[in-house]
Amino acid sequence: MDKGFSFQEREPQLPYHSWGPVFIEFNRHLDFRPSDTSTPEQVELEQKLDAVLAKREYLLSDLRATEEEHVALMDKLRELSAPRTTPANLLPDDVLLLIFSMGIGTALIVKSRKRTHEDKTHHRYFQTAVSQVCRRWRSLATNYPSLWTDYVVQDTPSTDNPELDCWLSRSAGIPLRLWIKCKFSPLGEGYSTPDGPCPRFKKLIHRIVDRLSFLWIEGCTHTCLRTLSDVGDRAPLLGELHVKSGQCDNRHLTPQDHALTIKKVTAPDVTAASFRGPKLLAECLVTKRLRYLNLAGAHVGPVTSSRVDETTFLNILSGCRELLYLQIDQSCFPDGDVPDSLGIVATFPRLTLLELYHGLSARPFSWLARIHMPILKAIKLKPHNTSDWSISTPPTDEYLAAKRVWLSNTPTIEEVSIRFDRNPVEVSNIIDLLLEGLLPHLGFLRLCRKDGYFWNSSSHWSKDLLRKLTLCVRTRWSLGNSIPRLFVEPPLFEGEPFGKNYAAELLSEVDEIGELKEFGLEALFREEQ
């Protein structure tokens, strides 16, 4: 045996997976070889030692393989856990085009920094902004026609407009959506053009009128009238028309302006229209195929410009036989009493939703009572003028009588939504009418204060109003005309969530309705017990 070899000296210097060769070397130096003088016990021990060494070498090799697998898995986990960003060039074309289409629109015009030779800010469209990222984005943004369908014109376009030429060529002949926006006067309620006459868009309209599917006009009355006159009957694809107008700061309306209404917009596919401003604008549209008509913004501007005479009013509504939704303001209705000789002035055989902005005047309800609406399902009543509803003066008998006649003529109504101001007189009125048995098919009632989401104190509900509401629910339930859905905003009782259905709770016993003791309401119901 070699005296210079020591197993104890080499063992700490080697890792555990290298012990196998050490034991083999140690066994070699021991030189356990069978000899003639070996006893059977020695031979048996030598065989057992060889078996143990072989088994140890096998286990160490398996341990080394397990350690290598462990290291590989840790490296892979570390690689997956590291934050990574996907390069833009890895996104497929259809995903990029979808992202681009979500970025276009009239409200997403990108503003660049000011030019050095101009005072005003240069506006750049979203499509041109993304085209500057890389060649691939530029190719997609410029060669995809659906990204070039919305065109916005600010003020008056120049005679030579290369931007429009680019837009028309890249849209590849598909229908276009056009927004015309004039500068709003910062000092008044109209539109101002201090640098010249009122804007005119005749050349622009003539170039794209045959491809128009959507038209938004925002400007003074003169600009809107002339633009509608330029469209005329030359827009076969027009489906939506929206006009937002106000008084002109340059000049007043003239007889020549009124003469422009003779040339009407007669596009066969116009199904939705809205007019905000003088009713003179609504005369420019043939309403036979309209399904959605919005006249609620007509009260904006001087009242004198919003009033229409009886003939104009009847002409506008008489052709709306395809109407499904009507939003109207009380200023749209003519002044004075409704002549008894008129009878039914219009018929809306398909109208299902009516939204009315009204005050304490009986005029709109008197006219609505003369309009036949056989399948009207829902009405929304909203305050027209805050000053009318904020006063504590109760409505006149004429007002209540006109509303009663109108609701009695439309028994098909199933949903009623009332939006009131600080004085909930409209809520009290509608509850009184429901107690009379009107609207037998009513299944949905929503009472909402105008700023209900900022008014969260239930103490503003009067005791009389709560009593009326509870009495209405119980009375209609006893008559078989229950209201299964009743929503009140803000909630009747403090701490309750918005959107709660009170129909079942108001049918419960008095001491189970909310926290009545905090409001002292037990005495209100003692007469019924």
From TrEMBL:
Domain of life assignment: Eukaryota
InterPro entries referenced in this protein's UniProt entry, alphabetically: F-box-like_dom_sf (IPR036047)
Protein name (record): Uncharacterized protein
